[in-house]
Design brief:
Blueprint (H helix, E strand, L loop, with lengths): L1 E9 L3 H19 L2 E7 L3 H7 L5 H8 L3 E6 L3 H4 L8 H11 L4 E7 L12 H4 L3 E7 L9 E3 L6 E3 L5 H16 L4 E6 L5 H14 L6 E6 H10 L6 E4 L1 H12 L9 E5 L4 E5 L16 H13 L3 H16 L15 H14 L19
Parallel strand pairs: 1-2, 1-3, 3-12, 5-10, 8-9, 8-10
Antiparallel strand pairs: 4-5, 4-11, 6-7, 11-12
Helix pairs in contact: 1-11, 1-13, 7-8, 9-10, 11-12, 12-13
The protein binds 3-isopropylmalic acid (IPM) and magnesium ion.
Amino acid sequence: MEKKIAVILGDGIGPEVTQQSIKVLNAIGKRFGHSFEYSYGLMGADAIDKTGSPLPDDTIATCLAADAILFGAIGHPKYDNDPTAKVRPEQGLLKLRKELQLFANIRPISTYHALHHLSPIKSKQLKHVDFVIFRELTGGIYFGKKELSEDKNTASDDCTYTAAEIERVSHLAFQYAQKRKKKLTLVDKANVLETSRLWRRVVQEIAAQYSDVTVDYMFVDNAAMQIIINPAQFDVVLTENMFGDIISDEASVLSGSLGLLPSASVGNKTALFEPIHGSYPQAAGKDIANPLGSVLSSAMMLDHFGLTAEAKAVRDAVAWTLSHGFVTKDIDPINNYATTAVGDLIIDHIERNADGERRSNNASLNQSTII
Ligand code: IPM
Ligand code: MG
């Protein structure tokens, strides 16, 4: 198979984690006989510095011409605490989501037994945690009219949803639930918000077409609590843009490290794959960031191409590094490996199709401590 992949390295640790994914994809290509061709585009603070725009038109064209997009991370502290900044890195990502109509953001939440001790949640609650958040990504308060009064003392963000916007992401979520444990939870705030009441109505109507899926409804404040006290109850969680942003960060800590979790954003055009972590500027360029969120995003990309055995080879390699302690500093502050070393070990596993028992003795791997 030949695939064109648009790569947006982005800001902070984006470039270094994405490089590991490219290495991994190339190893997969070699082992399974595929060719991946990469084209590069700018976005975020990096793009502002180089072009003045957080999303140059060239990048949109590169993305539209590709079969998938691999994206690193976005954001830079120099914009975060300046409420008057006219251009912001994040505008690039929001614009790209809108231009490509990436209306569904899929964030799988799972845990690895070897990392249970890192989770703020007790190990017994983490058993059987395996759910997927479907976050609507191109509507709601993120994209509503924004106003600031002339005296600058009153501000508003409009939250609007149409039934059609709710339907398209809901169908995807229901179809996904059919392939899993057949349970869908709509998270909303229907006791207060009109948009949430529309979500409930539309989801109830659609549910009739998926009679094998059990649907329940949960207010977002309760959902935030349930994710902590009983996360194993969830299968597919469907929610609007803003609630999805918040609960997916919350859910990500269950796994023990924010650096581990991948995501896919899909819609009518090219799909985009990115780790859910941010740009982590303090770690940029230090070769210490966890590349697994990006590498597992590449696995989601391979699934998207229909390459399920290839995706499994990536996930098996990742699981092997975790179970053998070949991990970055966020996971083990004492015995840890560099970003590039973890990338190399994953490739090593893919290339040799190792059985999970082998340990690498490669002295050039840059590990800080021999385990
Ligand atoms: C995310 C991020 C983005 C969002 C930011 C960077 C605009 O937090 O992908 O979750 O809020 O959607
Ligand atoms: Mg977020």
